[in-house]
Amino acid sequence: MPDWAAFALAAAALTLSLLFLTRRSERLLERARIADSRDEVSDAPSDVGDAGRDPRGEADGNAADTESDPDAPGVEGAADTGAVPAIRRPDDRPVLTTRLLLLNAAASQAGGLVVLAAVAWWAAVPAAAFGVGGTHPTLGVGPVASLGTPALVAVGVTAGIALTTGNEAAARLGSRVGLAPSDRLRAAMAPGTAGEWVLLLIVALPVVAVFEEALFRGALVGALAAGFAVDPWLLAVGSSVAFGLGHGAQGRLGIVVAGALGLALAGLFVATGSLLVPVVAHYVVNAVEFAVHERS
Questions:
Q1: How do the pLDDT tens digits run along the chain, 296 residues long?
Q2: Which one, of 213, 211, 243, 212, lies nearest residue 110 by Cα?
């Protein structure tokens, strides 16, 4: 018999831990210098910008000395936050690379997914409560889910494109009133090589979509609705607030937009009873956003 109380406490602890680490990572990103295979991302604090680079785009003498000095600081496993690895320079500003950010995103989200799966196994929560591999105990199976996996994927892709359009409209509206969401994190993770695009589209984004949907929709909506007979729409609102707060790196408008996106994804989950639909939609939103804004 499932131990719903223990699972609820563990899911809440995992969510709070994720939000805490996300906030720590945001602070690191605010003061970091981002170096990728193309150039340096210069949307940083005023003392960062293009400092340390000469007009030819090459590192200045101090940076060169750092690379040649055997006593200079090197790669540190987890920087100050314990969440995002960083390379230290003598001025103590962390320098993050695109590939490092992508690898960190994939590894941290995969780790969270393993923890969530272990907690569900320990508490004997069935996979069907997450909307995986069977009829959901509370939500049942929507008419789309009854058509099979291809129909679910098609709905997810269509919904993802529609949600991407909504996100773009919200960003443009926000820009007009001076509340445009920050794109620094997206720019920092933007691939500059074919290998990095593969890492982003085939590894990082799928893992992010699966973990975040498994936690924010599968656990916080589906499993809790099944275990405590709570209205799934009420749970959807609460999980969407947490989902929005987890995107604080995108600024205030970004938090609001992410929260609305989370509510829409929860609606897809509740309507279909399948976690596959919001996972696919989530992936499409992220992938299209990178393809449109960071393809150069």
A1: 999 999 999 999 999 999 998 888 888 777 777 776 555 444 444 333 333 333 333 344 444 444 444 444 433 333 343 455 555 545 567 777 888 889 989 999 999 999 999 999 999 999 999 999 888 888 876 676 677 889 899 999 999 999 999 888 877 887 777 776 667 778 888 888 999 999 999 999 999 999 999 999 999 999 999 999 899 999 999 999 999 998 877 777 888 889 999 999 999 999 999 999 999 999 999 999 999 887 75
A2: 211
Q: CA 296, CA 287: separation in Å to the nearest integer? A: 14
Q: In this structure, what DSSP letter does residue 219 have?
A: I
pTM: 0.79
Q: Which has the closest alpha carbon to 212: 240, 186, 193?
A: 240
User: In angstroms, rounded to a whole number, what is the distance separating the alpha carbons of residues 87 and 78?
Assistant: 9
Length of the chain: 296
Alpha helices in the chain (DSSP H): 4-31, 61-68, 98-122, 149-176, 184-189, 194-198, 205-213, 224-228, 232-245, 251-272, 276-293
Q: Are the beta carbons of 107 and 99 closer than 8 angstroms? A: no
Contacts of 75 (CB under 8 A, 6+ apart): 85, 87
Cα 163 to its chain centre, rounded Å, is 16
Bridge partner list, 140: 136
For residue 14, the one-letter residue type is L
